[in-house]
Amino acid sequence: EAPYRHPVRYRGASGIISEVDAMKIARSAQELGAGRIHVDSAIDPSVGFSELVKVGEILEEGSLISTVHAVDRDSAEEAEQRLIEAITVESLHPMGAEPLIIEVLPK
What we know:
Layout: E1 4-9, E2 15-20, H1 22-34, E3 48-50, E4 58-59, E5 64-70, H2 73-85, E6 87-91
Antiparallel strand pairs: 1-5, 2-4, 2-6, 3-5
Helix pairs in contact: 1-2
């Protein structure tokens, strides 16, 4: 288990996850030490991400995006920033969108 666990919370208007850039997340995990940067680099299996959100999930203010497992606070905060940049959240109510229900008919 990594010595430092850092929950990453969503800070923004409610929305739906439209994209998760897996390559950016993989590179961030690599920089935490979960993968080799050079042939002789050591791998730390205790670092990385857990509880990562998926495309289609709805996020609200304070929702958990993921938990960063790191060796220290500084590397966890750097990974948090890269993780936030890797996730695209779209509005639940796009401007100009037609309502799904126009009228409810009586029985």
